[in-house]
Design a protein that fits this description.
Its EC number is 3.2.1.23. This protein is mostly beta strands and 1069 residues long. It contains 16 helices and 67 strands. Strand 39 and strand 40 form a beta hairpin. The termini are far apart.
Length: 1069
């Protein structure tokens, strides 16, 4: 390496607009002055690690002293209590008696600690309707939390004090604005809740006992810039720490680790800003590979440090590039030594940061990583924990990054603020691409009810008084996160319209970083500022809208920065978006969002529930709109993730009866680290499996032979046709940090009906109907009921059975074997489903209101009863309770073996909205809670969300089938069911099988359709007293384009004009 002038830019031109104030005393005026966003704060810098010695691998930083733990706090209304930060506040004095203060954990929120009620709003500001301030003013009723922390200096801090070295105080995250005092002396003021605020406290800190005081305001002018869709939580929610600087210190370390894919070589470009550079005699720059081997070493002298900055630039030779697929990391180490005549250990400081050699840029109109077009398979992620709010832990982050890798997600947008530094380190390690987003959202300043745009009220727009604060926020983010290879795009913020301020931010980003692209979706609303984004980014654009852009000479690469609004039971139709990957300019999207934002709340009876807006008496609020995750708030995986994992898989597998075609969509890695398991399923049960080593180079498609057994042998053994599934799964060959060996990444299936002569059916449907009657039974043709009773000698297993078909109740009123009754009430016709969040948002309840009671309140218009030597039958003609009075026929045929053939037929109607569902709902005794089924699973599937479902035989229970969506709604459905068994703990119950060629939909839940429709929280659902088996001919999809108006796509709706038939056979077990 050589010392030279670096190509990394300093951003000095626009950075002059970022004015950090200086003051010896605090002023309350700063709270409402957007031009004062930081006072006495130090310049933003990289988050590299540093030591005063040669560190061991993975050694923690001993130069930092954590101030996390228990603090004292008192929360007051600043106006009511007449609190004034400028009046030498008493609480900041060293000898102040804070015994009346409460305790609070830092990191933590005032709301989750019980000092303020949590508030959830989306677009509107939380004070709307109570007060009406105009930006930059804040509400008069403004809480301020008075924090105090007494601490003793640790050994490293004390040594720095004795050595007259610099000691800094850093707040990693504090919302919304803080005033700080140390030992009674004013330290400084800071806004921007999500980037570090660091202060030089060298002249205030004492060796031994110290008292730190912080006034943290709920609202400030900065609140207008922090209108994200999240719980409004405040306080010191990230770590607070002291840092002792060595005698000379690398304040800011910026490294560009470039990779040339044409040669396979890397280069390094370093700019290190050094405090007290005069103390440096010489130094050493080194690059270590992942094994700790030095691959480059360059000595330097004091003469190479010019104006306090050391520049190093050189080629590195052959390197392993970084990507999400293969995240190869190196370590850049910079050692500062003292003067050459120093006879003691002359190391002053060793600074280290991990780097990844990669080149991410827009080339030929496309975003490319190391020369290859990239597709983001992403999700938007809030930092969130159901107990701690945004004070997430490393354990939370590890769970999250492992979930992402296990579900084939390769990208995260840090919506809508910079995350904790540890998150970036984990994404570097595990391999996740990041869009790093500036902490700016002002949605409520320019979007009025009904999506009316009011640009004249927009903040920041083109208002010069807001420019400095916005430039400071993007500058702080970039300077901290610059070295992380996982960060590939800088985002200027979210949903803040457009204007000259964003153009200035864009220009500053390119001054600071001449390589990474800039993202900002807001220019969509005002194309005058289109140049403020290097990427065409849209939110919730429908597939057809996106395709129109892609098909008409696109000028920019396209991403959906938010799509697939995953609120409640959602993520239907996702394949319509992933199908757009065939267009080169379509470069993926980010599902909204990662985790439900719901907070645990303890109720009066000691139980807990997950809550949403309004549950804390917060007004105004936006209800459950925060429940949009593919992960539930308690970090359990939602059924939606099953679909995401399959559609986001880079490897696509298409088996047939003699082999498999595998397409490796990875950009850089082949499939040698995978084992491909071939399986043969006969009627859903595995009969054969074998492992194969199929190596497919990146970006290529290969076909391989698979020695599947002859399926005709199984058909012969069964005495007829069987349904055969040829399956190939991709599994991890070795354990990884995120999954064990053998973990399944994706799968492919091909299903066909195979006859005993070896012929196959193209539709993959084999008849699983009931066998012919052959037992002995007694028919009782009663006045009120037509019944059939087993004698105990038939094929029903040697036990008695009973089937009663009522002449007055409109259906089967008894299905019994061995004294075990399966019917509480006769099965009801179902034409409705519990509304999903998407249904409520798009007005489905209004548009399809006629179907709500159509089946529930249907009346029997005609009946017909039959008896024969083979059994009994009854046909009930119902008139649906809807304007057309559509006639639906339900027919029961019971044979001498106790089998029941059940059909429910909807003939089609005219002038009717599409059907939510059609079939029957059957109330069962509570002990029948076990469900075994042959269909798509293991998780729930729907007409537009079943690509991730794998055909097989699965077992679950009624309680486990009810997904705990934040608001109870449609749940538990299984598509393409061939048969199911509902049993008690002893295996008694019944089997329901398709009678013809059509599969059906089914669910078994502890709640009825109406119970789910009425409840608004999970704890409002009644204690289970029955189970409810729902057998459907079909159900419409769940949708997911958005949750405020987008309908389910036409292809996934049920046309009310077309007939539907549920055709099943029931056998007692």
């Amino acid at each position: 390496m050589s010392t030279t002038e670096s190509t990394t830019k300093s951003g000095t031109e626009l950075q002059q607009h970022i004015v950090i104030g200086k003051a010896a005393e605090a002023s309350a005026d700063w709270l409402t002055d957007p031009q004062v966003f930081a006072v006495n704060r130090m310049p933003a810098h990289s988050d590299h690690r540093f030591f005063d010695h040669a560190p061991l691998p993975n050694e923690s930083m001993t130069l930092k002293q954590s101030l996390d733990g228990e603090w004292h706090v008192n929360v007051i209304d600043a106006a009511t209590e007449r609190f004034d930060v400028a009046d030498s506040p008493a609480f900041a004095a060293v000898d102040f008696n804070d015994e009346a203060f409460g305790a609070i954990a830092v990191p933590g929120h005032l709301e989750t600690a019980g000092y303020l009620p949590p508030k959830y709003v989306n677009i509107q500001y939380p004070w709307d309707g109570h007060e009406n301030p105009t930006a930059p003013a804040v509400p008069e009723h403004n809480h301020v939390a008075l924090y105090r922390r007494e601490f003793m200096t640790g050994p490293e801090t004390a040594a720095a004090i004795r050595g007259h070295r610099t000691v800094t105080l850093t707040f990693q995250g504090a919302q919304t604005a803080i005033y700080v005092w140390l030992n009674g002396t004013f330290v400084g003021y800071a806004e921007d809740s999500f980037t570090p605020s660091e202060f030089d406290v060298s002249d205030m800190i004492r060796e031994g006992r110290n008292v730190l005081a912080v006034a943290c305001y709920e609202y400030a002018s900065a609140s207008w810039l922090e209108d994200q869709d999240y719980w409004r939580l405040h306080g010191l929610f990230r770590s607070v720490e002291l840092t002792a600087w060595p005698e000379a210190h690398v304040m800011d370390l910026r490294a560009v680790a470039d990779y040339d894919h044409t040669t396979g070589t890397g280069s390094i470009d370093v700019a290190a800003r050094i405090a007290n550079a005069a103390a440096v005699g010489d130094g050493l720059a080194e690059i270590f590979d992942g094994n700790g081997t030095v691959i480059r070493r360059q000595e330097f002298t004091a003469a190479d440090i010019i104006d306090g900055t050391l520049h190093i630039r050189d080629g590195v030779g052959k390197v392993a590039p970084w990507s999400a697929e293969d995240p190869r990391l190196y370590t850049l180490s910079l050692t500062l030594n003292g003067p050459l005549n120093d006879t003691v250990d002359d190391i002053i400081e060793v600074s280290r940061t991990r780097i990844g050699f990669r080149r991410f840029a827009i080339e030929d109109g496309l975003m490319k990583l190391n020369g290859k077009r990239i597709v983001f398979k992403g999700v938007d992620r809030h930092e969130f924990d159901a107990r701690r709010g945004r004070a997430v832990t490393e354990e939370d982050m590890l769970w999250d990054v492992r979930f992402l890798k296990r579900h084939n997600l390769n990208a995260v947008r840090t919506s809508h603020y910079p995350n904790q530094s540890r998150w970036y380190e984990l994404c570097d390690e595990y391999g996740i691409y990041l869009i790093d987003e500036t902490n700016i959202e002002t949605h409520g300043t320019w979007s009025a009810p009904g999506d009316q745009v009011t640009p004249e009220t927009n903040v920041p727009g083109s208002k010069p008084e807001w420019e400095g604060a916005c430039l400071d926020r993007v500058n702080s983010m970039i300077r901290r996160d610059f070295n992380h290879p996982s960060v590939v795009i800088w985002s200027l913020g979210n949903e803040s319209y457009a204007g000259e301020v964003f153009q200035a931010m864009h220009d500053l980003v390119h001054e600071l970083d001449g390589v990474r692209p800039v993202h900002y979706e807001g220019v969509y609303w005002n194309r005058e500022f289109d140049a403020a984004s290097d990427i065409e980014s849209r939110m919730y654009a429908k597939p057809a809208e996106i395709e129109e852009y892609l098909a008409n000479d696109p000028k920019k690469p396209y991403i959906s920065c938010e799509y697939m609004h995953a609120m409640g039971n959602s993520v239907g139709g996702m394949q319509l978006y992933t199908d757009l990957e065939r267009y080169p300019h379509y470069q993926g999207g980010f599902i909204w969002d990662y985790i439900d934002q719901a907070l645990w709340q303890r109720l009066g009876d000691g139980t807990e529930r997950l809550t949403y807006g309004g549950d804390w008496d917060d007004r105004p609020h936006d209800y459950e709109f925060s429940g949009d995750g593919i992960v539930f708030a308690d970090r359990t995986v939602s059924p939606k993730a099953q679909e995401v994992r399959q559609l986001y898989a880079n490897v696509k597998i298409v088996p047939d009866d003699s082999g498999v075609t595998i397409t490796n969509g990875n950009l850089f890695i082949d499939t040698s680290d995978s084992v491909f398991t071939a399986r043969l399923l006969v009627d859903g049960v595995e009969r054969w499996s074998a492992d194969y080593d199929f190596v497919v180079p990146a970006g290529e498609t290969r076909r391989f032979d698979v020695a599947f057994p002859d399926a005709a042998e199984y058909a012969n053994a069964a005495g007829g046709s069987v349904e055969v599934t040829y399956e190939v799964d991709q599994r991890l060959r070795h354990a990884t940090p995120w999954a064990d060996a053998g973990y399944e990444l994706t799968f492919g299936q091909h299903t066909a009906a195979v006859a005993s002569d070896g012929t196959t059916g193209g539709d993959g449907i084999a008849d699983a109907g009931a066998t012919k009657a052959g037992g002995k039974a007694v028919v009782v043709d009663g006045r009120w009921n037509l019944g059939i009773h087993g004698t105990g000698t038939g094929a029903a297993g040697g036990a008695d059975f009973e089937v009663l078909l009522s002449r007055t109740q409109g259906g089967m009123v008894s299905l019994r074997r061995g004294g075990r009754e399966m019917v509480i009430r006769r099965p009801d016709i179902v034409t409705f489903r519990p509304l999903t969040d998407n249904d409520r948002g798009n007005g489905s309840g209004f548009d399809r209101a006629q179907w709500f009671g159509a089946g529930r309140y249907a009346r029997v218009a005609d009946t017909r009863f039959e008896t024969s030597e083979h059994g009994i039958a009854a046909e009930y003609a119902y008139e649906l309770a809807e304007p057309n009075r559509t006639r639906v026929t339900v027919r029961y045929e019971a044979d001498a073996n106790g089998r029941v053939h059940l059909t429910a037929s909807y003939p089609g109607g005219v002038d009717a909205p599409t059907l939510p569902a059609f079939g029957l709902e059957w109330m069962l005794p509570a002990q029948y809670t076990n469900l075994r089924f042959y269909g798509l699973g293991p998780d729930e599937t729907y007409l537009d969300r079943k690509i991730g479902g794998k055909l097989g035989v699965y077992e679950t229970t009624a309680p486990d089938s009810a997904a705990p969506y934040l608001v109870p709604q449609e749940t538990g459905n299984h598509e393409d069911v061939r048969w199911l068994e509902v049993t008690d703990e002893y295996g008694h119950g019944m089997k329901v099988s398709r009678s013809g060629s059509d599969t059906f939909c089914a669910s078994l839940l502890p709640y009825s359709t109406l119970m789910l429709e009425e409840a608004r929280h999970q704890d409002e659902l009644p204690a289970p007293r029955h189970t409810f088996l729902r057998l459907l001919a079909a159900q419409m999809g769940v949708g997911g384009d958005d949750s405020w108006g987008a309908p389910v796509h036409d292809r996934f709706q049920l046309d009310a004009a077309k007939p539907l038939t549920l055709d099943v056979a029931i056998e007692l077990l």
